[in-house]
Each structure stands twice: as structure tokens, then as C-alpha cells.
Amino acid sequence: MSATDYGLIGHPLGHSLSPQIHAALLEAAGLPGRYDLFDILPDQLGETVRRLGRERLGFNCTIPYKEQVMPLLESLDPVAGRIRSVNTVWRNRGYNTDYDAFRHDCPLSSGDHVLILGAGGVSRTMAFAAADAGCVLRIVARRPQQARDLACAVQTACPAADIACPEDLDAWRRDADGANRWIALNGTPVGLWPHVAKMPLAPDDLSFCRFVYDTIYNPVATRLVLAARSRGIRAKGGLGMLFGQALAAQKIWNPQSVFPEPAMAGVCAALEAEIWRQFPLTVLLSGFMGSGKTTVGRLLARQMQLPFVDLDQQIEKEAGRSIPDMFARDGEVAFRSLERRLLEDIVRQPYSKILATGGGALTGPDIAPVLAAAPTRVVYLDIQPERLVERLGRGRGRPMLAGKDFGQWRALYDERRPRYLERADLVVDTAPPADRVAAFIWQRLGLEETT
To answer: In whole numbers, what is the pLDDT of the chain averaged over residues?
Structure first.
């Protein structure tokens, strides 16, 4: 090992992105060195910290050692000392770069009403940051006593802070007064890959919120973030904070080095792509026949550099004949059975992809287990019925529409649309040109904050 090496201690480390981030930062700054993972047990902590202090220029700490490492260090930066949490070590001194990274990525102002979900390590950082900013702070956690302990620690450091711990979300809802004023900060793992269908708040709770910040970064946009964005609420995921704390650590370890802004934007883009690679997610495009799922899907896949799969094409390939022929020979029940089986097979394949589904693929009553079989995101391409007439004509090649008049088309549309909306993580208007629709979806699924 050399004095230009770095590393991360924690347990378990799992799919840590730290090596990729720090390798990219070192390369961008023209610095030598490598970054290694040290997945250690508690009884190895003392010896590991002493060894890394001798052999490494610097190292990071993650759960469960952010507090346990402090007695092993010679000194603490004031922020780390107040928060009682260390994530970066340099020359046997402990720092907390999460704090500044969060404040930069999620600016807060005096008087903001802030709801923090969870009372673990990242919630601790956010609570101190919110109190320092002069926010009205409420902490709700699955274990209420843990929330109260955190509130006590923050109150001791910030005696003037307005802070309380509702017993649960119902108590917070009563306190919210129906006002659209809250900033919701998620510090829980709810929604973390691969359990991406979960949300730490109910969708109706978003009516109380004007901004949502989710510290989860895999997936880049959690269901909570997408639900907020679909309602026109500003929302961000935690990738910016993850990148920010790593960059701040590098600046501590290499104070004379320059990290160029254009290169940093490239590092963020590469990091987002790496998350799509390491944490497979299938983006399913749903919607009525003629909504543009295949056209938009191909464009979106090209923009995101992901594979594109057309479910109808896969069905025809498997059956060896066209879909109209399948309907004519075997009937709709047989077609739906094959459609469901292939859909489940495709979403289970362990790589990220864009999947264009058939108009009825996600409308069946038994589709929930299929979507739960693997991490998915459902994007509903919403189209007005009048535009369908322009696009579909007489419905040639579409067995569900062939021979039907507009009134019959409209009845099928009205029947399916509530099901599309029920399944959707994101609803997109297809009125703009297809390339703009694809770009909009990519933006909403990604790191960039949108309104």
C-alpha cells in the first residue's frame, strides 16, 4: 500500500459505489491512488483504524462505525463533534462531510417546516442541519424513542430549536393543518433497491409538502420522488449528497488539488449510469393503443443508453405468428396468458431496460405479482381519445379495436385509463413530439430536480 491510497470501513458494505466515485474524482483531478473497501467486524475496528492511519492518506467510515470510530481518533472537526458522527478521517482527525453536502444539495431557510422521516445516521445529519438553519422540525420514526433521543441531542446543541417528535405519521398529519408548506426529508431505507415499490409517506401526504428530498440514491429517483414530481412538487434524490460528501472528503485529503466543474458534471453523469448498471430496474411504458409506447421507448432507450424491448414483438417471436392471428385462432385468454408469462420473464432479467408493453398488458387484476417480481418503474403515456382517432384510423392490426366505432373505442379507453393511473409511478402527457416526451421521462427518472 502507498500513502496515496484511500478506503472505506463499514459492515456490511454490499454494493458500495464509493470506489467508482473516488476513482473518478482522482482521475479528474490528476491524482494517483486507489480506493478500497474494508468490510470489517466490530472487533476489528481498532486495529483497522490504526493500520489505515499508517498506510492510507485518508479513509471514510460508514454504518455502523460513524460514532464508534470517534474515541479512536486524536481530534474531531467541530461539525463532527457536534453531530457525534464521523464519515471521513485524515491524519487521525474526524470530519463529517455529509453535513455540508446535504446543506448544499438541499438548501433550507429559517422558518421552513421540515419533516424528517427516520432517526438513524443520515437523519441525524439532516436534523442538525435543519436546526442550524432555523427550521421548525418534526421527527417521525418507526421507533419513537429513537426519534426522541435524536431530538434531545439536537435540542442540547441548538437550545432555540423548535423541535418535536409526533408519535407517528397520523399525529403529524393532524399537526400539518392541511397546509402545503412542509419539506419532507426521507432518512429511512424505505424505497431502496430492490424494494423500489415502497414509499415512506402515503401519496396523499404529499398534499402537505412543497419539497421532497429522499437521501436514497439507488434508484436515482425513488417512488417517493416520482410521486412528488408527478404532482408538480419539487423533489430530489440523494445522489447529489452522495457525490458531494465524496468530493468534500477528497478536498480534505488533497487540499491543494483542483476538481474542475465540467469534469465533476461528467463524474455525476457516469455515476448515474453506474447506478442503472449495478441496480437493475425495468422501466415499463404503459398506455392505450396508439399512445406511442414503442416510438417513445426506442428514443428513451437511446437517450439513456439502455436496451429496448417491445413486449408485443417478443410475444410474436415466441408464438411464431402475429398477434391478430393469435386472437383469431386462440382467443384473448390464451394471448393474455402468454403475455403475462413473457412480461414476468422480461422484468426478472437482471439488467436495466426500457420495456414497451401492450395496451392491455398492465390492466389485468393479477398484474401486481408480476410487477413485484423485480424492481420496476411504470410510466403511463397519457393520450386524449380524440388523438387516438388520428393515430389509429380503423384500428387495423389491433384486435381489440378492429371493427369498432369511436363510441366503442371510448368505452374501452374509459375502462382502462383508471387502471393505467393506478399502476403508474409517473404520468406523462404524450401531446409533445416523441423525442421531447422521451427526454422528459429521462429527466424525471434521473438526478436533475424538476418542477
So the answer is: 92
Nearby residues of 170 by Cβ (< 8 Å), 6 or more positions away: none
Instruction: Give the position of cell 408548506.
Output: 181
Mean pLDDT of 390-395: 61
C-alpha cell at 415: 375502462
What's the angle, vertex CA 240, arms to CA 153 and CA 71, rounded to 5? 40
Q: Return the percentage of the chain with pLDDT > 90, whole number.
A: 83
Annotated catalytic residue 251: no
Task: Name all domains of the chain by residue range, CATH numbers in brackets.
Answer: 6-95+245-276 (3.40.50.10860), 107-237 (3.40.50.720), 280-445 (3.40.50.300)
pLDDT in tens, 424-449: 999 999 989 999 999 999 999 986 65
CB-count exposure of residue 231 (10 Å: 0-12, 13-18, 19+): middle
**The one catalytic residue among 66, 236, 293, 353:** 66
Contacts of 383 (CB under 8 A, 6+ apart): 287, 288, 290, 291, 292, 430, 431
| 8 Å CB contact between 356 and 329 | no
d(CA 420, CA 382): 9
> Which residues lie below 8 Å from residue 69, measured CB to CB, with a gap of 6+?
9, 45, 49, 61, 86, 89, 94
- Nearest in space to 176 (alpha carbons), one of 143, 209, 144, 200: 209
Which one-letter DSSP state was computed for residue 359? Answer: T
Contact 242, 274 (CB under 8 A): no
pLDDT tens for residues 140-152? 999 999 999 999 9
Work out whether the CA dihedral 245, 249, 255, 258 comes out positive or negative.
Answer: negative
User: Grid coordinates 403515456 are at which residue?
Assistant: 381
Q: CA-to-CA distance for 162 and 298, rounded, in angstroms?
A: 51
Is a pLDDT exceeding 50 seen at residue 1?
no
User: What does pTM read for this prediction?
Assistant: 0.91
